[in-house]
Design brief:
alpha+beta, 5 strands, two-stranded antiparallel sheet
Length: 151
């Protein structure tokens, strides 16, 4: 389990990503993959463990319990409203509506600028393309099911 400062950092990144997405996300999967890809970009630039989230390899791609915990923090404090929608095929999707942007003081202005720059490029991708991109990273490909993804 991450310390509270790390969870706040992840929560601050998620809130910024949501703001850059227009304050709304239709899919937890897309939100997780966006944060994952931001971590990959930063890792490849030499800034390992940018968000501090730990990812594991699952059949639906990289997943992080830390991101789940950060979403719960945002929800509990009223920064994000989490909803559920059931699609035509019967799958349940979580939606996220940003109510207020928290300032936990965990991100520098330079980090916020970089998150903005890369999020604008990634958020335009359709969910399937974003998933394909996350699945095809060498970091994810080099792990077995259930193993930690090394950044």
């Amino acid at each position: 389990m991450k310390n509270q400062s790390n969870i706040k950092r992840i929560a601050e990144i998620i809130a910024l990503v949501l703001r850059l997405m227009g304050g709304y996300a239709y899919s937890k999967t897309k939100l997780v993959k966006l944060v994952y890809l931001l971590d990959i970009i930063q890792s490849r630039k030499g800034n390992k463990h940018f968000s501090t989230a730990t990812y594991k390899s699952y059949y639906y791609g990289p997943y992080s319990d830390d991101i789940e915990e950060a979403i719960n923090l945002l929800d509990n404090f009223g920064y994000v409203e989490v909803g559920k929608k059931t699609s035509v095929n019967g799958n349940t999707y979580y939606t996220f509506q940003l109510k207020d942007t928290p300032y936990f003081g965990e991100l520098s202005q330079n980090e916020k600028n970089e998150i903005s720059q890369y999020t604008f490029q990634l958020v335009e991708l359709e969910r399937e393309k974003l998933l394909e991109l996350a699945y095809s990273t060498k970091e994810f490909e080099n792990t077995q099911f259930g193993e930690e993804v090394k950044l």
